[in-house]
Amino acid sequence: MIVSVLRDVSPVAMLLGCCIAVFAMASCSDQPDHGGSAAPPANSNQALLNALDGNTEALVLGNADGPQIIITPGLSARVLGAAIDGANDENLMWVDESVLDGSMFDKEPRFWNAGGLRTWTAPEDLFFVNAEKDADSWFVPSELDPRPYELISKSATEASFKADIDLPANIGKTYHITLKRDITLLTAPPADAGKLSSAIEYMGVAKTHSLTNRGDLVIGEDLPYVCLWSLLQINPAGTTMVPVKDGVDPKSAYREYFNPLGDRLSIANNIISIKIDGKYRLKIGVRPDAAGEGIAFLRDNKDGTGILFVKEFPVDPDGVYVDKPWGKPSDYGDAVELYNDDGNMGGFTEIECHGPAQRLAKGESQTHSLELHMFRGPLEELKTIGASLLGADLTKAVYY
Q1: pTM of the model
Q2: Distance between CA 224 and CA 323 in Å, rounded?
């Protein structure tokens, strides 16, 4: 990006520019390219970098000509940008318009809904609604998001962040916790994806997040259990698919949270398919004993090509999971969730997963890891890749 600024200048200016470049390379944040003759594509990593410039720190892993992710430490260390083919390529994350036009940064506390890949804590009805579990009281605690994170370490492809958080619950207690996020840019597809044709492009993100109890009260004993919650916001339209374990009836594997899904949900070959368009509010959760090896979303570009997102993570069928519909009795929590917005919050979709909760005395931690794989290319090849990764034949799933 610095190179484009230094073209066609005098030797003295070039020398000065090189000094500036060395300084920029030594900093922990890549700078936007303001010197190009043409504006970057609107939905690109470079456009995002330009929008963030002067508003909040943007940390870039990767390079301007290949797979690249953008992390915003000041916005909960979320992965806000992900492009397969460099800074001017499409950002595969959903980003709220208020980030791109700068209005998010005009007031404090900042709006939580920036987009991208983030970490929350569950259950939602302990931290995000009032004690009466009234749905109209829903809010996002600013202590959690967009909580600034501290950068612990960084390399060309990896970065670690942490934040000490005092998170109030609606039971009159406060959780004193530390959240940590280790984020790695992946540039080589997983072996389980099989042999890929030259028409397929790839990038990925590996994330391990942890929750440490800093308080004197024992979580899971003196305080209710909490668990780590990973949420990915991406652009519709397409189909989300949740494979269900063999021997489990898919019709009993999930539950609806909000509006009824009706013909937006189909089941075939032990795969739950959901129509995603960002125009109808819906959410389902899948039991831990029924969940398969992950969740997938196939975005259809309507030209025979698309983007496949595959989120892989471990599920403990006997683990303690705590997220459930608000204010409704339940003897279990969901391990896998998906959400389709109706446009009121921006028209995105979310693919979500939880880690099992653990009893945590002071100083003890729980962790959960996941990998997000993103492939671009012909739709039929993408379905085959998804089948290889998730151990379920996505070529026989229902698509919308």
Answers
A1: 0.90
A2: 12
- Helix boundaries (H) for the chain: 2-5, 11-26, 45-52, 97-100, 124-127, 250-253, 379-390
List Cα–Cα distances, 156 to 116, 175, 388, in angstroms: 20, 34, 29
CA angle 264, 269, 270 (to 5 degrees): 75
What is the distance between the alpha carbons of residues 6 and 339, in angstroms, rounded to a whole number?
46
The percent of the chain in helix, strand and coil, each rounded to the nearest 5, is 20, 35, 45
The secondary structure of residue 135, as a DSSP letter, is G
State the Cα–Cα distance between residues 86 and 97, nearest whole angstrom: 22
* 8 Å CB contact between 250 and 238: no
Residue 112 to residue 208: CA distance in whole angstroms: 21
Q: In what order do the strands lie in the sheet with 150-154?
A: 150-154, 158-168, 174-186, 201-213, 365-378, 305-312, 294-300, 238-243, 271-276, 265-268
* Residues 349/230, Cβ–Cβ less than 8 Å: no
Residue 232 has φ and ψ, to the nearest 5°, of -120, 125
pLDDT over threshold 70, residue 15: no
Pick from 390, 357, 355: which is nearest to 369 by CA?
355
With CA atoms as reference, report the closest residue to 31 among 2, 67, 62.
Answer: 2
Q: Tell me the C-alpha distance between 257 and 339, whole Å.
A: 9
d(CA 183, CA 170): 31
Question: Do the Cβ atoms of 348 and 276 come closer than 8 Å?
Answer: no
What is the tens place of the pLDDT at every residue in 96-108? 999 999 999 998 8
Tell me the C-alpha distance between 390 and 157, whole Å.
25
By the 8 A CB rule, do 357 and 366 touch?
yes
φ, ψ at 375 (rounded to 5°): -120, 145
Q: Which two tokens stand for residue 79?
A: 């992965």
% of the chain exceeding 70 in pLDDT: 91
pLDDT at 28: 41
